[in-house]
Amino acid sequence: MKNTDTSFSLAPELQRDCIELADWPLCKVLLMNDSQYPWFILVPRVADVKEIIDLSEELQITLLQESGKLSKLLQQVFSPDKLNVAALGNMVPQLHVHHIARFTTDPAWPAPIWGKLPAVPYSDEQIEQLRAHF
Question: Which long-range contacts (CB under 8 A, 24 or more apart) does 60-65 make?
Fold first, then answer.
């Protein structure tokens, strides 16, 4: 796989709202700083990409593999009732893929979580516990 783009920079909204957990071969692994939901985001480190189809075929496959890896990790760690995976980009056009572990007991169930409740930030201890899985 070709190295990721050196001109890549994370969208300001993602910098503001997320915690960087890891760098995988293609993607940054982010944690949305809202402890009400196990909400992770993969961002391919490729500049100026809005859609999955904008990636080369090789990078599309790598993104799918990393998405699968993250999804399996979320199932193992959280045992969710449902795993939501989506690349929307309506508010943040930079390509990013949400991975959200959902539970029938979560405060937004069964509705989408976006804008439902004010975010409840993670504690430093919670962040370190999650970081240990990456």
Answer: 62/1, 62/25, 62/26, 63/26, 63/27, 63/97
Spell out the CATH class of 12-131. alpha beta
Listing DSSP states for 23-56 in one string gives E-SSEEEEEES-TTS-EEEEEES-TT--SGGGS-
H-type helices in the chain, by residue range? 12-17, 57-78, 124-131
Q: Encode pLDDT of 86-117 as tens digits.
A: 999 888 999 999 999 999 999 999 999 988 89
Tokens of 24: 């995988």
The ranges assigned to domains in the chain are: 12-131
Q: In angstroms, rounded to a whole number, what is the distance separating the alpha carbons of residues 83 and 32?
A: 15
Whole-number Å distance between alpha carbons of 59 and 51: 12
pLDDT at 1: 45
Distance CA 69, CA 53 (A): 20
Label the pairing between strands 18-23 and 82-86.
Answer: unpaired
| Average pLDDT of the residues in 28-42 | 97
- pLDDT at position 77 is 96
